[in-house]
């Protein structure tokens, strides 16, 4: 009797979860996969056969890779520094550096416009020097800085926490054997920080690939795939093509994360 009651309780608890999974994940994903077929099977390969969409994909991929690499390098340097117990006011510095976590992508894009837009501080400075109004907010440079600004606080916080929990005996052993600073970093620190590096790389890359709010604010001279998808289903009502491009974006991001997991030898679940 007790087993029967337990089974009913479990069924009652799982039913809302099953309904939610079906309604908000399985059904939309099934529609997303099936929709391009309505316009012909070649729609699934539009990302490869149309130069405009292929360019948009390559722009997105290269930008995401560069942002990921730059974020990891800067985040590692700042995180290792803030992990030192001798740094004065490190908690205040960490809270200050992670403040941008509270800003959505649109606000980050607005910050870049205030800095490098047509009415931004840089344009005013260059005009005051007699060099004309220089802008960088609406192209590749603006997107790069915005993505970096958006991702860096997360990576700094992750590296700081990971560096504080490192086994310092490994570092001491390396120094006792005559290792220099670079050798300590390469042989003692980086192996311990590999899981954090892989996790941060996955998060930054996936976020950059799918970023919309920041790109929507800034990408007027440099098209990325999320904006291309938005234009297709909003401006042109081309839902089959938008679905195809969405599938391409999702599959490429998933494949990159899968390869990252294989590279780390399965030590990090991505």
Question: What's the end-to-end separation, in Å?
Answer: 42 Å
Helical fraction equals over 70%
CATH class of the largest domain: Mainly Alpha
And the CATH topology of the largest domain? MetI-like fold
Low-confidence stretches: none
What summary fits the major beta sheet?
Answer: none
A few lines on this structure:
The chain is mainly α. It is 75% helix and 0% strand.
Task: Supply the key terms.
single chain, 2 domains, mainly alpha, 12 helices, globular, MetI-like fold, about 270 residues
Structure write-up:
The protein has 270 residues and is mainly α. It has two domains: 39 residues; 218 residues, MetI-like (MetI-like fold, Orthogonal Bundle), CATH 1.10.3720. The protein is 75% helix and 0% strand. Helix 3 packs parallel to helix 7. The longest helix has 33 residues. The model has no long low-confidence stretch (mean pLDDT 82).
């Amino acid at each position: 009797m007790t087993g029967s009651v337990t089974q009913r309780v479990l069924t009652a608890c799982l039913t809302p979860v099953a309904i939610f999974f079906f309604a908000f994940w399985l059904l939309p994903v099934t529609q997303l996969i099936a929709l391009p077929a309505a316009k012909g099977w070649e729609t699934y390969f539009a990302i490869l056969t149309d130069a405009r969409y292929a360019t948009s994909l390559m722009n997105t991929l290269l930008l995401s890779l560069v942002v990921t690499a730059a974020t990891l390098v800067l985040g590692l340097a700042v995180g290792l520094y803030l992990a030192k117990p001798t740094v004065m006011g490190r908690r205040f510095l960490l809270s200050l550096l992670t403040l941008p976590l509270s800003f959505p992508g649109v606000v980050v894009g607005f910050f870049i416009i205030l800095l490098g837009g047509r009415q931004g501080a840089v344009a005013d400075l260059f005009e005051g020097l007699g060099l004309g109004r220089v802008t960088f907010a609406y192209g590749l440079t603006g997107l790069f800085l915005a993505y970096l600004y958006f991702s860096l606080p997360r990576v700094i916080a992750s590296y700081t926490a990971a560096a504080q929990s490192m086994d310092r005996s490994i570092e001491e052993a390396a120094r006792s054997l005559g290792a220099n600073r670079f050798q300590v970093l390469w042989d003692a620190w980086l192996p311990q920080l590999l899981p954090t590096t892989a996790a941060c790389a996955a998060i930054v890359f996936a976020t950059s690939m799918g970023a919309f709010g920041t790109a929507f604010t800034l990408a007027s001279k440099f098209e990325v795939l999320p904006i291309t998808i938005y234009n297709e289903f909003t401006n042109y009502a081309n839902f089959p093509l938008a679905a195809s491009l969405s599938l391409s974006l999702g599959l490429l991001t998933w494949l990159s994360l899968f390869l990252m997991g294989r590279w780390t030898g399965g030590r990090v679940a991505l």
